[in-house]
Write a structure and sequence with these properties.
Length: about 90
């Protein structure tokens, strides 16, 4: 909550990961009502943070940051398909 409360947008990804873990903890402990209370509090206090709320809503739905592949895998998938063997110049090196 401290990241979101202090408007540290560059750390929103980490905050979403923390919320995702918190949700799992609340669920394991059988405290679903308490989790819903946290969700209401965050929605009321931070509804205007457009860089944070879509990710938070994904966490609430159950599709949080851990569902997304890591950056390196996404980059390999994106750039691996676009890169091929280097073009041949048609002549042998001198």
């Amino acid at each position: 909550m401290s990241v979101v409360n202090t408007k540290k947008s560059k750390y929103y990804g980490a905050a979403l990961g923390n919320f995702e873990r918190a949700k799992r903890c609340y669920e394991k402990a059988g405290l679903g009502a308490d989790w819903e209370s946290v969700v209401r509090e965050v929605r009321e206090a931070h509804h205007r943070k457009t860089g944070f709320m879509p990710g938070f809503e994904d966490v609430v739905k159950g599709a949080g940051p851990s569902e997304e592949p890591p950056f390196l895998e996404r980059a390999k998938a994106r750039w691996g398909a676009k890169t091929g063997p280097p073009p041949s110049s048609g002549s042998a090196p001198r």
